[in-house]
Each structure stands twice: as structure tokens, then as C-alpha cells.
Amino acid sequence: MTETADPRVIEIGQFYPHPPQRVWQALTTPELMARWLMEPSGFAPVVGTRFSFHGQPMPSVDFSGEIACEVLEVVDVGQLTISWADARSDKPSAWVVSWTLHPEGSGTRVILRHSGFDPDDDVQQRSRAIMGNGWVRIADQLREVLDG
Questions:
Q1: Does domain 2-147 have CATH number 3.50.50.60?
Q2: 28: Cβ–Cβ under 8 A, 6 or more apart, which residues?
Q3: Strand ranges in 55-94 using DSSP code E only, listed in sequence order
Q4: pLDDT for 58-104, tens place per residue?
Q5: Rounded distance, CA 96 to CA 3, Å?
């Protein structure tokens, strides 16, 4: 697993011993997403689709627990990019989350990139630290879904 030190970005690389098609299915099928990320409401891997996730509220970083998203880019079996914002925040974020798949031997390397953190905003930097740890756990949960 690799991570970046850029204060504007969380970037994690993870290898899965599964073919790209199988990983793609886990990234883009709502029932499978619910098992490794959160249950999406209204998700379809189609550019322009608006959907949401409902997670655990975190008052320490002013997170309501409701995440508003829009599918920004889809490259079949290659990349999924979505916007990611607290749906109840008075201060909009410009976060973008992408998963890029790279075939590697008989498996797939997935690069998760969560960008848009303000390096001068203490709350966003605390959020980045919390989310960075969260994405590492989520990458492990994706592995469990793929292995299952």
C-alpha cells in the first residue's frame, strides 16, 4: 500500500489478486459497494448521476454523515470519478474521489485518489487525516468483498 504526503490529497495504491473486471464490478455495483464502502442511494456508473451515501456523523470535523455525490467520469473497467461533499455543510467542499484500475499480472492495482483538501484549513486537514485512515480500512474491506 502506498500513500502521499501532499496536504491537498489522499492517495492510496492497493494491489488485489483479482482481474480488473471483478474489481470494477465491486466498485460499480450498488449491492457490492454497500459491503465495502457504504450503501449508495441512487448510484449508477453513468456520468451526471447524482447520488448519496449515509455514514457516521463526526461533529469534531463538522461532518453530518450525509455525503452528496455526482459521477464525474467513467472509463469502463478503468476509472470511476465522483464528487464527494457533505450534503449538510454550510461550507462546500471541492472534493473529488477517483478509483483508477491498472492490470498488473493476474491482478489489479487500484489507485484511490481523494483530492481537494485545503492545506490552510485546519478542519479540512483533520478531515484528511481521518479520511486517510478510513480509506485504508475501506481498501481492506474491498479486499474482503473481492476475496469472498
A1: no
A2: 45, 80
A3: 66-75, 79-86
A4: 887 778 888 999 999 999 999 999 999 888 877 767 899 999 999 99
A5: 17
